[in-house]
Write a structure and sequence with these properties.
Layout lengths: L1 H13 L22 E6 L4 E5 L5 E2 L4 H13 L20 H5 L10 H12 L4 H16 L5 E2 L1 H10 L1 H12 L7 H12 L1 E3 L1 H7 L1 H4 L14 H14 L5 H7 L4 E3 L4 E6 L3 E6 L10 H14 L5
Antiparallel strand pairs: 1-2, 1-8, 3-5, 4-5, 6-7, 7-8
Helix pairs in contact: 1-13, 2-4, 2-11, 4-7, 4-8, 5-8, 5-9, 6-8, 7-8
Bound molecules: 6-diazenyl-5-OXO-L-norleucine.
Amino acid sequence: MELAAARTIERAAELQERGNVASYIPELAKVDPQKAGIAITLANGATISAGDCDEQSTIQSVSKVFTLALALGTVGDRLWNRVGREPSGSAFDSILQLEHENGIPRNPFVNAGALVVTDSILSNYQPKEALAEILSFVRALADDETIHIDKAVAQSETETGHRNRALAHYLASYGNFNNQVDHTLGVYFHQCALSMSCVQLSRAGRFLAFGGAIGAGEARIVSHRRAKRIAAIMITCGHYDGSGDFAYRVGVPAKSGVSGMILAVVPNVASIAVWSPGLNKNGNSLIGTQMLEQVIRELDWSIF
Ligand code: DON
């Protein structure tokens, strides 16, 4: 497996087409598209990693799996009155479907749906407390107290996040927002700016790979059923309008972020994080997808 990880990084370095780094969040535009890292954490707790696997990046939309798990733990299935569970077939920041569907976002991973999820967590807290809750949840999942929020990236998105502001106000106009729009947006921008390396992210994702527990023989952090259901939404919606292509090429549940991070889970086998900042046309990591496609094929880990 060490060889498979190392080979994946070697091949990634040879690829000429790197994709485009996200520039609508100015801080993300500064990152070098040549970066590529991978980390694979197994049920026995061992982590195999290669490339820029210890370098920090914000996780952006990958944070949506953690907030979904937290929100389901807080409000349970009532969350599904406010957000659907169907693939959107549209861009992550699209506003189009919201009017047709009366302010109910298609799923918790498009930005509109993730804003509703964060809004439901915030209903029990002040914004700073909600953020502390999200941070301590992720730290507990990864068993790593050093995980932090990149304030510069959060600030950068706070200054330029006009689409998210529009989505949030639109949701509020349909009555699908319980808190002050600026409070929910503030928590959302900061959760997206959670800063992690591939090694840390692969460890934080273990609960999704191992039925709600962080490893074989460990206590469950979420129920088995909930972990499986979150993974089901990852495979159908985790790559937005690129979800079908990702399932076809890679074949495991995964969630991407515009920083070029992807968290993938191989049920009962491994939690994998890859990072490469250049994006494809759907806003998912171009090289990261290729790395996952290669390593999962080599290890024969597709769920299909
Ligand atoms: O809300 C945004 O636009 C970003 N903070 C996160 C979007 C994202 O990561 C989409 N994923 N590919």
